[in-house]
Amino acid sequence: MPSVAVKLYSVFFKLLLKHRLQSLISISPDHAPPDSFGVSTRSDESVAAANPSFADGVATKDIHIDPMTSLTVRIFLPESALSPTEPRSDRRHSLTPPLNHSSSPAAPEPRRNSYGSENLEPYRGYAPSPKRSSRKLPVMLQFHGGGWVSGGSDSAANDFFCRRIAKVCDVIVLAVGYRLAPENRYPAAFEDGVKVLHWLGKQANLADCCKSLGNNNRRVNGVELKKVNVQGHIVDAFGASMVEPWLAAHADPSRCVLLGVSCGGNIADYVARKAVEAGKLLDPVKVVAQVLMYPFFIGNNPTQSEIKLANSYFYDKPVSVLAWKLFLPEKEFDFDHPAANPLAHNRSGPPLKLMPPTLTVVAEHDWMRDRAIAYAEELRKVNVDSPVLEYKDAVHEFATLDMLLKTPQAQACAEDIAIWVKKYISLRGHEFSY
C-alpha cells in the first residue's frame, strides 16, 4: 500500500483539483466561443525557468513555435550531445564565442542593446559551433499530464522529469506545451501534438537546406532566405533565424519517440496514428516507438479496476470525469469518444497492426490501469511489440507527480523506460544496444 504521507497528500490533492475543475466549469460555459490563442500553463502553478547552459547535465530553452496560438516547446539537450571525443576541459568553448571574431587577443567589444546600452552581459548559453563535430541524438516528444486543464512543459515537476528522461535515455526531449482546456477543448491539444511533429520535420529540412545553401540566397514560399556565415544559420530578409540551432546540430528525427504522461498518453497515441497515416510525408521524421505512462483512458463499459478503484489516489474517477467534461465539447461528450477510449468502435485511423511499438506503464492503485492493459493486449494480438510495466503499490502519476519524483520507484521507472526505448533508437555498431 502507498505510504501514509502519499495517502494524506492525495486527499489534499483531490480537494484542490476538484475545486479547480469546478471553478473552471462555472466560469467556462459550453456555449462560450473558444480562445484560439489559448493558454499552455496556469499562472498559479510552479514553473522552472529555462537554462541554456548545462545545469545538472541538461541545457533547456523555450520556443514559441506557432504565432497564432500559445503552443510552445521546451527543448532538453543532454550534455552527452557534445562530441564524445571532445575533452572535458574544452567544453567551455561550446558556449557562444566572444563577440570579437578577429585574430587579435584584444578584449571583445561591449555588447549593445537597441537603446545603445553597454551593460548587457553576453549570452552564456550553449551555442553549437559549425566547426566542431557534434553527436546526433534521437528526439523524444513528451506530452505532460494534468487532466487537460493544468500542468505545462515548463512546470517544475515536468522540467525535473524531462531532465531525468533526457539523461537516462540519452535523447533530446521536446516537451510540448499544448493548449489547455477549457479555453481550448478537443481537438486543440491533439492538433498541437501533430503540429509539433510537423514542425520537427520542417526544422530537419531547413537544417539540410542550410547545409546546401552555401553563401547564396534563395526564395522558399515567397520568403527570401540567406545564410549567415558566422553561425551558419538560415535567416529571412529581416534577419530572423528560421533554424533551431540545437536541433540542427544534434537532432536525429529519423529516431523519434513519443512519450505521453496521463492525458498526454492519449495525445501521444493520437499523434502516433497521424504519423502512421502521413507515412513518408513526414520524412525525415520517423516515429519508431511510443511510451504511454498510465494513459487517461476511459469507456462507457466500466472495467474491473474502474469499479474497484474508482476512489483511488490522486486522479480518482469522479475527478477525472470532471476533467473530461471540461475537455470534450458538450455535443461530443461520450466516454467512448475516440480521444477517451482507444478501443472504441468508432476509432478512426490506421489499423492497430500498423501502430509503432508501444510500452505501457501502469500502477497497481490506478483505476485506469485495466483499459491501458487491454489496449496493450490488443496491440500484441496483431504482433505489435507492446509490453506492460506494472508497478506494485504505485498510484497514478507515481513517476511524474511533484511529491513522488525523487522516490526510488520513479527513478526505476525512468530507467526501465530507457532500457526498452533504446531497443528502437540505438544505432547498432555505434551505440550500446539493449
TrEMBL record:
Annotated stretches, region: Disordered: 82-133
Coiled coil feature spans: none
Domain spans labelled Alpha/beta hydrolase fold-3: 140-399
One Pfam family of this chain: Abhydrolase_3
Family the UniProt entry places it in: Belongs to the 'GDXG' lipolytic enzyme family.
PANTHER family attached to this UniProt entry: ARYLACETAMIDE DEACETYLASE, CARBOXYLESTERASE 16-RELATED
Protein name, per record: Alpha/beta hydrolase fold-3 domain-containing protein
